Structure formats: structure tokens, C-alpha cells
Amino acid sequence: MSLENFEKIRSFDNDNFVHPWESMKEVGTNSRTFAEKADGIYLYDENGQKLIDGPGGMWCVQIGYGRKEMAEAIAEQVYKMPYYSPWNMSASPSALLARNLAERAPSDLKHVFFTTCGSTAVDSAIRFVHFYNNVRDKPQKKLIISREKSYHGSTYLSATVSGKTRDKDWMDTASEMVHFLPDVNPSIRSKGLSIENYLEEKVKDLEKAILQIGADKVGAFIAEPVLASGGVIVPPKGYHQKCLEVCHRNDILYISDEVVTGFGRLGHWFASKEVFDIEPDLITCAKGLTSGYVPMGACLISDRIFSEISGDDSKNSSFSNGYTYSGHPVAAAAALKNLEIIEKEGLLEHVRQVTPHFQDRLHGLRKLPLVGDTRGAGLIGCVEGQIVDSDNPKALEIDIKIGARIDRHCQALGLIVRPLLNMCVFSPPLIINSKQIDEMFNILELGILKATEDLQRERFWKDMNEKT
């Protein structure tokens, strides 16, 4: 394609394509990178530059790009039957996938409700909690407890229970339906406070909230095993177990949001049981379910709670929630092939094998003067810049400037990072090998050093907190 024709396409992007989280100040004037081709762990931009996909799309490209067997499975299903109505029919791919997920899920999470993405999976989980308590004659038991820095989606309900405050600056949510617990990031705990005492403090936050609200009014607690978009925050060990115990003592359901951590990101099909030793009541998932090849999500529901409101205990109720594309046969075929590839190629074992090297390289960046913290688990990580004093009126401006500079330098060097203010987050395709991990972090280190040099030449540097 000629440069002239491509600039025309860029104008279409600016004039007509409203992107997620669109900045209204910059709308129509953006110069976004175009991903025009992809293979393995690499994207190729409009100029043909080869770029390591550090974020793995949007935390989702588990098996990597360009998998011919995925294309064939999708095409075969399209030719065979591209759609059916899930309201009054079913189809083999959907039923097979439901069984496949039930067999991989922890404990008794054997009922699978298919959705279109992670947001609608969370939305459906919350609606099921409300439905569950209505059928049990507990119509007041509806409030959801969530956490600061959490992200659960952008539908109305899933955005309501998300705890990233800046996302809500200009958007409405049903704030009366949710209560947020304080940040669970161990790196911000008070100086001298042990991790054990911090853990107890965080569990008490949940207990106090339930006491304050009333257990008879709380329907569920929703928690990502690792808070991904909030900055890859890993709660202290034992946190999820203790919180689940508190919930079950108070007849409160536990929703484990595994939209990011599911399907190998932490080296297991699901992280809830294998990594964090919990058996939640509901699990939401999406992203890695199809490796991003086509949209799909799911909400898994335990036999225990399903049995309480079905059969003779159903009161002739219907769970009136669903989507035109629930259990879409093409998406189901893609998911089945994706899970087959993960299993056949031993990607879960591979992730567990390369995780120590990934985490070592990640934490090795702490030596850089611009880096304030590094966090991670499995093949997910975050590099956070020095914390700027929140009282500084330029704090947000500085954070954005740091992230943008690192992003620009890394991309010029051949790496896509996903800047979240002053944080760079990573969740590369699970197929990444040790050599490619080194390549990725070598570029990131150089990008951070180049950004540091930029900031040292500019007035913003004096506004940064001095690293101790």
C-alpha cells in the first residue's frame, strides 16, 4: 500500500473509529501505530517494523499470532455452520467447550454461561448473584464488595464494581450497588509493618465492611487473583483464602475474576485453585479462552449454588440473561482449538519453566534510578516509575510524561509496551522463550535509560521524588 493511501486510512481512523478510552481532547488528531501483520510474539506496523508484543494484545494472545490451525478451525466452522440461536437450540462446539471448561475448572464449577467478552462475563456473574438471592427470598442481599485499583470491565455493572477511580471521572456507575475496600498492594504498606500484619489488616478491611453494611445486604465479593490493569498488584500470600473463609461464614458468594489470569497466564488453566488455593463460587474468564482470535467470555458457576435454585427449588424461575452470541459456534470452535494447542504444546508447563527467568529480569530493573517498584506473577509483570508526591500539582502530568517517553523509546527499539500512567505492564504470548524474554527486557531497560536521560534534561526532573 502506498504512503498516500495509508494516510487516507489513517484519516478514516481519526475521523470515524472511536477507540476505547478515547481522549476527547486529542480525538481526530492521533497518530496511532497500525498493526498490519503479526506472527508469533511479533507485530509489524504500517512501516514494516517488527515489534515484540509485550502486552500480548490486551493480556490475551496466549498461543501467539499466525496460527494456521486456528484459522482452519475457524474457517471450517464458518463453512459448516456459522450461527445458531442459543435460546432454543444448541450445537456440538458449544456443548463440547462447556464440558471442556467444566473438566478444567476447580472443584464443582461445572455450569458454564457463555458471554461475548470479560465485561459481559462479569456483568452476568453479578446478575446471577442477584438472581440467586431473589430465588432464595433474600432480595436485599445484592451489594457487591470490590477493591480499589481493580478492573472488571466497562459494561455498566462491571464498570460499577471496578475500582480504578480515574476511569469514573466522567462516567456514571451504579455507585450505590458497590463498596470498595482499600488498596491491597503490599508495597505501599506502612514502614515497619510486617507482611503478616498487613495481610491481617487487609482481611479485616473485608470483615469491617461486612459488619458495617450488614451481611444480609452483601451478595458477593469480587476479586481478581492478581489485579492486572490496576498495576499487576499481587495481594499478600493467603489473602484470597482468608477472604473466601470470611465470605462463606457470612453467606456471601466469592467471584474470582480470571479474565486475565485464566488459561495459562500463571502456568495453569485457572489460577484460583492451583496458585491461590481457593475454590470460588463463580469464575469469570475470557481473553486467553480464544487467545484473542475471536471474542468470547464465560461465567462458571458452582454446582453448590446452582443446585440451591434449580429443580424443585427453582420456584419456576428463569435466569433471564443472555446474548445473541452466547455460545457462538465459531467462537466455541476457536476456543476448543486454542485449548487443544495449549495442551498439545505443553504451554502450561512452559510458562512454569520460563517464569523464574521472566520474573528475575523484571525485578532486575529495580536497579534503575527511574524505577520505583516491580511486581509480577507467572508471565505477567509491571514496572512502575518512582512514586510522585500526590500533593504535587504536576503529579499526574509527570506520570503520563514518564510512561509516554518510555513507550516512545521502546517502540523505536522494537518493543510495544502498554503505559498506564507511569507503569509499563507485560503479559507476552505464552510461547515466548528465554532468549526472547531477554530481548524484551533488554529493550525495556534501554528505553527506560533513554527516558531518564530525557527527563534529566527537562524541568520535570526536579519535581520527581528523590529515590532513597
In short:
By secondary structure, this protein is of the alpha/beta class. It contains 14 helices and 15 strands. The chain has helices spanning 3-16, 56-59, 68-80, 92-104, 118-135, 156-160, 195-213, 239-249, 271-274, 303-308, 329-344, 347-363, 395-413, 434-456, and strands at 35-39, 42-45, 50-53, 109-115, 143-147, 178-181, 218-223, 253-257, 282-285, 297-302, 371-377, 380-385, 415-416, 418-420, 423-426.
Tell me what the structure shows.
With 468 residues, the chain is of the alpha/beta class. The protein has two domains: 33-63 and 346-463, Aspartate Aminotransferase, domain 1 (Alpha-Beta Complex); 69-344, Type I PLP-dependent aspartate aminotransferase-like (Major domain) (Aspartate Aminotransferase, domain 2), CATH 3.40.640. The chain is 39% helix and 15% strand. It has helices at residues 3-16, 56-59, 68-80, 92-104, 118-135, 156-160, 195-213, 239-249, 271-274, 303-308, 329-344, 347-363, 395-413, 434-456; strands at 35-39, 42-45, 50-53, 109-115, 143-147, 178-181, 218-223, 253-257, 282-285, 297-302, 371-377, 380-385, 415-416, 418-420, 423-426. Strands 4-10-9-8-7-5-6 form a seven-stranded mixed beta sheet, with helices on both faces. The N and C termini lie far apart (52 Å).
